[in-house]
Amino acid sequence: MKVLLAGANGYIGTRLIPVLLDKGHNVVCLVRDKRRYHEQSDYSDRVTLLTGDLLKPDSIENFPEDVDAAYYLVHSMSQADDFADMEALSAKNFTQAINKTRCRQVIYLSGITNDTDLSKHLLSRKHVEDVLKECKADLTVLRAAIIIGSGSSSFEIIRDLTEKLPVMTVPRWVNTLCQPIAIRDVLGYLEGVLLNEKAFNQTFDIGGPDILSFKQMMLTYAKVRRLKRHIITIPFLSPKISSYWLYFVTSTSYSLAQSLVDSMKNETIMKDHEIDKVVKRDCLTYEAALQLAFKKIEQNSIVSSWKDALNNGYLTSGFMDQIKVPQNGTLEYKVKQPFSRESAKVLDNVMAIGGNRGWYYWDWIWSLRGFLDKLFGGVGTRRGRTSNVSVSAGDVIDFWRVLLADKVNRRLLLYAEMKLPGEAWLEFKIIERNHITYLSQVATFRPRGLWGRMYWYAMWPFHLFIFKGMARKIVNFGNTKSSSIQLAK
């Protein structure tokens, strides 16, 4: 059968695609930029791609008329005042597009909304459900609480807090109860309700077997990791202070921290188990879900991560337009480092930059820059990398976004997402000229006004040391006999 997937590049969508392909379905992916999907996905040659921004109906390619079912996996974690309007508009445009097809079922992954006095985001999810009911197709809604899996925002935040802080003074929302569910079980339910007539026009809560507070989840994580942790609850911490606390301690953005704190006041517990009548499944316990996530991390097989999501809200969808580094109105610092070792080894070092590997030279400076970025509301360096062994377009590397990771042409291009008075690119490329192999490293900056130029020249002394040292270390890293030619210009 033909299945359309809106939100194909998201955390859930990326993992659902191989599940659907393994079942023999013909998958059609709605993406905002085909270039990113081709760069990022291993399945780009096995799916049909449609281009469209659901906030801009004129940009949406016509959906195939013969679509049998559709998944709507689009949502925002923005704190913008109009985020609820954007979510409703996106759902409305999707509804109008899908109504032109012969689609029989629309499946939406929402949040559990059984509590009173819901947060803005849970209210918005509920409103999206109402908008999607305007679809001619039958609607199936799956409502989940916290999703636990390698790369999920909830898992990564619990991981950050528990790994970094032996003693935590925490807000009272850590005592709020929820029913976490493993990503594997979410995917199982999403596939299980597909064109299952028992699920037509039905709403189901889904969750794992454990009901836990956030405090219990952190302590369970500590137990699994054999860490001794102490958690002290402070009742007078305001939501704003809680958001800043979460933002500075974890890899989350401030807008996501605000959204999470806002939603953590609500209990997210299943009100019934009607889903068992439709999809019979023995869900993983919270502890088992943690163990599975650890296993994926150890194997460097994290399929997707919330950190790689492009949308700050919905809006930064044109990042691939930066793939051509501008030549006019820019400032550059270039390093060419010759070497005589095997090019593939140097390329591997380039592709492994950032995250656990670090930046090869003066790592403390990069950490300091990340800390300052956090102070000014930026992303900092805590996002790290999704995988230590692979990288593709759209991934994050600390405070950079990967625009291009081309092993064939031996090129890595990064775009800065830190707070800057301008735009910045960092390009690595292995080139051969006159029988000499070089690592070319180019930092490009397009300043915004006078402050931008002042920033560039203030950083110039650091560039002299950092970029030359970094290029030299990259070509020599892992080489027992240093064979590089010490030349930079």
Characterization of this structure:
This protein starts with a strand and ends in a 13-residue tail after the last helix. It is globular and about 70 Å long. It is an alpha/beta fold and 489 residues long. The chain is built from 13 helices and 19 strands. Helix 1 (11-22) links the parallel strand 1 (2-6) and strand 2.
Q: What structural category characterises the helix and strand content?
A: alpha/beta
What is the count of helical runs? 13
| Average of per-residue pLDDT values | 85
Segments where pLDDT lies below 50 for 5+ residues?
Answer: 310-317, 483-489
Counting DSSP E segments of at least 2 residues, the number of strands comes to 19
Main beta sheet strand tally, sense and closure: 7 strands, parallel
Helix share, percent: 25-40%
Radius of gyration: 24 Å
- Alpha carbon gap, first and last residue: 58 Å
Coarse shape = globular
Into which percentage range does the β-strand content fall? 15-25%
- Strand order across the largest sheet: 3-2-1-4-5-6-11
